Amino acid sequence: MRTGTALDSPLSFLADPFDPVRPEFVQNPYALYAVLREQAPVFYNADRHWWLISKYEDVHFCLRDRNFTKVLNNSEQSCPFGGFIQRLKSLSNEMFMGVKQPAIDLKGFISNYDPPQHTKIRTPLNQRFSKQSVQMLTDEIAQYARQLWDDVENQTGAFDLLEHYAFPLSSHFAFKQIGIPQESKEICDLLRELMLCFDPVLAERDKLEETTARLAALLKPIVLERKRQPANDSITDLLKHKAEGRSLSHDTVLANALYLVMAAFESTAFLIGNGVLALLRNPDQFELLRANPTYIERAVDELARFEASGQIVPYFIKENVELRSKLLKKGETVHLLIGSANRDPAIFDEPDRLDILRPNSNRHLAFGAGTHFCLGSHLARLLAQVAISTLVQRAPGIKLAHDKISYRMPIRIRCLESLPVVL
Q: pTM of the entire structure?
């Protein structure tokens, strides 16, 4: 049973500037989260000019309260990824200074809007990503997972489970739902490059322009083709929708085609990867699930709680608000620590213990809450359920190839560099 270790001097964390690229935070954020929850649940970092909200009750409140917004009402409103580039500048000596407007308008992502614009974009997508619609894909997903595992079983020696299983499964059905040709491997590679554009350690100044230009060259013809020839996919849904008698703009459709495939591609693959790693490190839970396949829905909720792929969600404050006797001022930035909320002992007993039969694991906030609750949550859950069920049943002897597991640097995402395993 692995639970994460405390820092040598946890109190020093509150005295020093919060640095989310410190190696000890990237590899194990939970020790730092515990310090925050216990000693400074609403913590202001004067050097970074942001608030950190770490307790479940407060994070849940902020996610649902309309005073916490994705739109900052000034000349820098709706920054890409909810202001993510702007905040990364403060972490990396303004590494994005001089970057031109990307070929795809990242400010147009649905995640950067509140209602009514958020509603206009989300409404045409709701039906396709509803639980009822997604459940109709169960047999197809199961068949494709078996097909992928047939190939995996031919591997000799150690191999990367993310590359050979999690990413192919998640990208196949993300592309299918959104309307991207399945052979577009180049898009997968570019999506990974785009995520690195927001990495404060690895990002290169011109990478954002270059990567979005190449993605635009691939996605624009698909959108134009859907205008000429509608299909059964999300791009068509967006193109056909009219709100108040007006269609969504071409730029909005293009931006959200990119957003949807990026969100589904990365978050689902990392949910699968993080979940499998947690089970391999807790063999009693692996065996419990293998002996009881019907536990899979509860297991995936617990795995999402235990190692959420989305760890930190940024918001702005519309109007002054008091939280735990702290005054959060209009225009300030708050980071909601989803990973911390999901490990809050006030909600989850023994939160650092993996328990696939935990009675309230479905209260996790891995998919958010309120207006910005994850549109693709039902698809992500189903893909993770099928992927993990297939693996557990077909590879009872699967093991980590070694214990040197490392995580990538992106601040908001808990993502493995790789997941080397042997059968």
A: 0.87
